[in-house]
Write a structure and sequence with these properties.
globular, 20 strands, Archaeosine Trna-guanine Transglycosylase, Chain: A, domain 4, binds S-adenosyl-L-homocysteine, Transcription Regulator spoIIAA, single chain, 9 helices, 3 domains, about 400 residues, alpha/beta, Rossmann fold
Length: about 400
């Protein structure tokens, strides 16, 4: 087995459990490098650090799969996926769940979403892509799925020298499926929906709006397929308007409202939320609850400030539309904007909007996307509800 020796002075990250080894942290390599092959990583003093897969094309040279000298083979992946499933069952996520959340399940760069009997998979690194047949075999053995689909149409694969692809990893099936969530039903378009087709990470947060929307006029922006809005109608909102820039998302949202018999309360329109919220603020429109769930504003450290400005702006505009004593429901999935910074941004927005806010709840993603302390990118979703009153 090829051995890599780390430099003497490396960040404590690896010793503390983080699985990434960057190329510039490696002092010497003993043996041939086979892209996607298994290698051993040792500290400078020769002590074993872990075993993982290597990609000389990637800045992340090695991603560790284990801290033990165990064999990496199909049985290893079967075991790891079975463990991930046992954990989801233990914490109560069974019908739909993120079955594998990459690093948080010790399977770096692997994402698997389970939508009842269907599975959507992403292998986002060369090393993990190499093990795709073993992963499929494990899913087939553990679940006997009705279908498996790969949504590897993501740009980050190109950093690994991989192409963007999507398609069936099982016999072809109808990729428009229906899932149940919190007593409601939603269409999921596995083939053409965003990311893996559906945002499972907000499933518990959607429940969190239950009490504040009763009898309310609700405005939702960045609705995608209308999940938060349909929850609001289900929980007793008087009227609900959802906005998304994508015509396709709006069509799906309308279909979802009809599927739940809530299309008389829930309306959706294709609009640019940034423009519309600003205009409606000037027009003096008012809502009891405003819900915001924009897409990630940045993936690079260089543009964090721009992302913060974006969050401040959209939340300020949202707050201005809220009746005295109403509620703002706001999310951020930009992992570089850590929770503390997000809260500070909302505070700045409130100040500028001349509003007083009171925190109702502050949550992260659903627990089937585990947070690992020390791996900041696993703590990515911020979900906040505040009461908003005039100053
Ligand atoms: N709340 C949704 C997920 C939202 S994803 C859920 O829980 O399922 C973010 C959405 O914002 C995407 O659907 C995208 O089309 C939309 N979007 C991006 N820019 C926008 C803009 N300027 N105005 C309105 N919607 C926008």
């Amino acid at each position: 087995m090829t051995k890599l020796f780390l430099k003497k002075k490396i960040a404590a990250r690896i010793a503390n459990g983080h699985p990434w080894v960057f190329g510039n942290e490696v002092d010497k390599i003993d043996g041939p490098i086979e892209p996607a092959g298994t290698v051993d990583v040792h500290y400078a003093d020769g002590k074993f650090a872990g075993r993982g897969y290597i990609n000389p094309k990637s800045q992340i040279l090695v991603r560790l799969l284990t801290r033990k000298p165990e064999t990496i083979d199909a049985a290893f992946f079967h075991r790891r996926i079975a463990e991930a499933w046992a954990y989801r069952q233990k914490i109560g996520y069974t019908e739909n769940c993120r079955l594998v959340f990459g690093e948080a399940d010790q399977m770096p760069a692997l994402i698997i979403d389970k939508f009842n009997d269907y599975f959507v998979l992403q292998t986002l690194s060369l090393g993990m892509d190499h093990w795709k047949p073993a992963i499929i075999e494990a899913l087939n053995t553990i679940f006997s799925p009705k279908g498996i689909y790969e949504r590897n149409d993501v740009p980050v694969r190109e950093l690994e020298g991989l192409s963007q692809i999507k398609g069936f990893l099982s016999e072809p099936f109808d990729t428009n499926i229906i899932i149940n969530e919190n007593g409601l039903r939603f269409h999921v378009d596995i083939e053409n929906g965003q990311k893996t087709g559906y945002f499972l990470d907000q499933q518990d947060n959607r429940k969190a709006i239950q009490h504040i929307v009763k009898g309310a006029d609700v405005l939702g922006a960045f609705t995608y397929t209308g999940t938060f809005e349909i929850h609001a109608a289900h929980y007793g909102a008087k009227s609900v308007l959802g906005l998304d820039i994508s015509e396709n998302a709006v069509a799906q949202a309308n279909k979802n409202a009809a599927l739940n018999g809530l299309d008389d309360i829930c309306k959706f329109e294709a609009m640019n939320a940034f423009d519309v919220l600003k205009q409606w603020g000037k027009d003096g429109r008012q809502y009891d609850v405003v819900m915001l769930d924009p897409p990630a504003f940045t993936k690079s450290r260089e543009s964090i400030q721009k992302a913060i400005t974006g969050y401040k702006e959209i939340n300020l505009r949202g707050m201005k539309l809220i009746r005295n004593g109403g509620f703002l429901v706001t999310s951020s999935c930009t992992n570089l904007v850590q929770p503390e910074l997000f809260l500070q941004t909302i505070e700045m927005a409130a100040k500028d909007a001349r509003k007083k806010i009171r925190q109702v709840t502050f949550q992260a993603q659903a627990s089937d996307h585990p947070i690992i302390w020390g791996m900041d990118n696993t703590n990515y979703l911020k979900f906040l509800i505040v009461e908003v009153t005039d100053k």
